């Protein structure tokens, strides 16, 4: 079972169809070291492929949510100086694509992903949370596109996803300056759904929201995620067309809808089939 595995950078707890992933390197400010880049996407893939949960909550330990990319990753990624220059640059491009894929999994996962953020959410952590479905934070939280302070351009998703969440002018200001955006401003800008006084109350609330999601038909919820993400990236006309195709194949009123009606009549919670498991190694 996923929740029984031992990880170096995080822990996983699955209860009542909600997976809670906790970044667990507080002494290192939950910075994203080499182990993290292997473990994080692997956990998301496993939960998704095994249909192990209907919602995912990601939180962390310590004072800060995450300080972003661990500098050791930059050293580990340095390729041999003897490699021909064009090939060396191709190697770097492919490395960036691999890092992007580590957070793309949050969008391709069939179940919603909710972020619970305390303290600093810096650099690569902003890349991560912008790929989630919903974000919540504590009153002491702040967000910083830190890369310009290091003489580089953010390259793992922030500059592509953040303009879909808040105004492009504000994105440019944050990216150009590297300044901190506090929780109240993040809420006013629409980056986070709600601000909580402390981490305990935030986790209680966010896990409660995840439980509400988990109580719904997983097929209906994954349909919502698919359609909303598609609409974000396509025209209204194209999105409406895709909606008609999706609904013609996925809407099965004799199953989940009838179960909801029966459950209401019998004064009980509805029971839904899980989404099918995926074996990435099998074609048939």
UniProtKB/TrEMBL annotation:
Pfam families registered for this protein in UniProt: ECH_1
Family annotation (CDD domains): crotonase-like
Annotated localization: Peroxisome
This protein's record includes keyword Iron: no
GO (cellular component) term, any one: cytoplasm
Domain of life, per lineage: Bacteria
Listed GO biological process terms: fatty acid beta-oxidation
GO molecular function: isomerase activity
Entry keywords, A to Z: Acetylation, Fatty acid metabolism, Isomerase, Lipid metabolism, Peroxisome
Cited SUPFAM superfamilies: ClpP/crotonase
InterPro entries: ClpP/crotonase-like_dom_sf, Ech1-like, Enoyl-CoA_hydra/iso, Enoyl-CoA_hydra_C
Annotated pathway: Lipid metabolism; fatty acid beta-oxidation
Entry similarity comment: Belongs to the enoyl-CoA hydratase/isomerase family.
Identification of the protein by name: Enoyl-CoA hydratase/isomerase
């Amino acid at each position: 079972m996923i929740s029984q595995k031992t990880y170096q950078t995080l822990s996983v707890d699955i209860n009542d169809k909600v997976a809670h992933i906790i970044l667990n390197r507080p002494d290192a400010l939950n910075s994203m070291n080499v182990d993290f880049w292997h473990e994080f996407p692997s956990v998301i893939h496993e939960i998704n492929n095994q249909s192990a949960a209907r919602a995912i909550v990601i939180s962390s330990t310590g004072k800060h949510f995450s300080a972003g990319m661990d500098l050791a990753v930059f050293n580990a990624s340095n390729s041999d100086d003897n490699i021909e220059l064009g090939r060396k640059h191709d190697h770097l491009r492919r490395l960036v694509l691999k890092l992007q894929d580590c957070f793309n999994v949050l969008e391709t996962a069939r179940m919603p992903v909710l972020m619970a953020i305390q303290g600093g959410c810096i650099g690569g952590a902003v890349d991560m949370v912008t790929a989630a479905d919903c974000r919540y934070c504590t009153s002491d939280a702040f967000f910083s596109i830190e890369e310009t302070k290091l003489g580089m351009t953010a390259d793992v998703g922030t500059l592509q996803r953040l303009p879909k969440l808040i105004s492009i002018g504000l994105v440019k200001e944050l990216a150009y300056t590297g300044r901190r955006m506090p929780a109240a401003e993040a809420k006013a800008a629409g980056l986070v759904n709600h601000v909580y006084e402390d981490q305990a109350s935030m986790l209680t609330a966010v896990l409660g929201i995840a439980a509400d999601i988990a109580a719904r038909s997983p097929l209906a919820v994954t349909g919502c995620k698919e359609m909303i993400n598609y609409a974000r990236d396509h025209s209204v006309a194209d999105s409406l067309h895709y909606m008609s195709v999706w609904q013609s194949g996925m809407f099965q009123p004799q199953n989940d809808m009838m179960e909801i009606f029966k459950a209401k009549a019998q004064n009980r919670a509805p029971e839904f089939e899980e989404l099918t498991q995926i074996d990435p190694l099998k074609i048939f």
